[in-house]
Amino acid sequence: MDETTREMFSPHNLPLEMMEEILLRLPVKSLTRFKCVCSSWRSLISETLFALKHALILETSKATTSTKSPYGVITTSRYHLKSCCIHSLYNESTVYVSEHDGELLGRDYYQVVGTCHGLVCFHVDYDKSLYLWNPTIKLQQRLSSSDLETSDDECVVTYGFGYDESEDDYKVVALLQQRHQVKIETKIYSTRQKLWRSNTSFPSGVVVADKSRSGIYINGTLNWAATSSSSSWTIISYDMSRDEFKELPGPVCCGRGCFTMTLGDLRGCLSMVCYCKGANADVWVMKEFGEVYSWSKLLSIPGLTDFVRPLWISDGLVVLLEFRSGLALYNCSNGRFHYPVSNSISGCRDAKVYLKTMVSPNDL
């Protein structure tokens, strides 16, 4: 490259808008390096708004299982937090697994509440507090005043974590239920206001089906599998911008002998696994969130009656599944399973897909 061309593409000669558009489409690793190019780039890349824009662009990118995929999987197993790349799971014979125990609070019981824009929200057992952590840039922050006061040990708490775009606020939703009682009390934590408040819109007669499973964040909503007095299975959905709960019907199959169901996030779509008549597990996706007619059966896995949840699906219809014993790949075309990380990540209690971003928990 001659001097004239090099000067033309110098950071100082690029219009600010063009420079930002280019940088927004780069992976985190590149952005971290490019902070050292010049002071204007460092200032731009360090902005909170830039990090959020970058995360939103990555979420809509077409990269799935290629080397450019910005997605990873984080799992908890007893007292350990581990992660690996989606690309590695699908394409490498030996999956590289990162252990994050030393980056956090030491040896303790972690419950992953949810992920959003690269932030992982988790609940720590010993101080009953909530933390936000970005595993990509290795920053964490305890949420001030997030320890939730409960009346006694008989209260079961089910969490969910997501982003309220209308208020530019990351929020945690807590569903509190006394054992052997139906009534559910709901509280909402705002990371912007640093406090809990009550919400009274939870429908009566609805019970969360699996209280150990966190809410699934989809399009500004949090969703839990539930049962109600009016129907055997339903979905309870919390709209973060409207601050209200409502019921969403599942696919038609739920009225034909399903004995349980599991919700998930499958590349931005709400997914549901129905265990039909004890013979197979049907995986459904809601292609347009909130539209009942958009439920579509993606695949059926014969012989599965235990817990399973799809985490990711490739363009070639190879599905990453979470079992109680670990992660597995299921090829829809030939019906075969492959266990790429059986020795590295086993006994998964709750796996979550997260986006590799520069959103800092310290900026909230």
UniProtKB/TrEMBL annotation:
It comes from the Eukaryota. InterPro entries: F-box-assoc_dom_typ1 (IPR006527), F-box-assoc_interact_dom (IPR017451), F-box-like_dom_sf (IPR036047), F-box_dom (IPR001810), SCF_F-box_component (IPR050796). Signal peptide: none annotated. Residues 8-54 form the F-box domain. This is F-box domain. PROSITE patterns: FBOX. SUPFAM superfamilies: F-box domain. Coiled coil: none annotated.
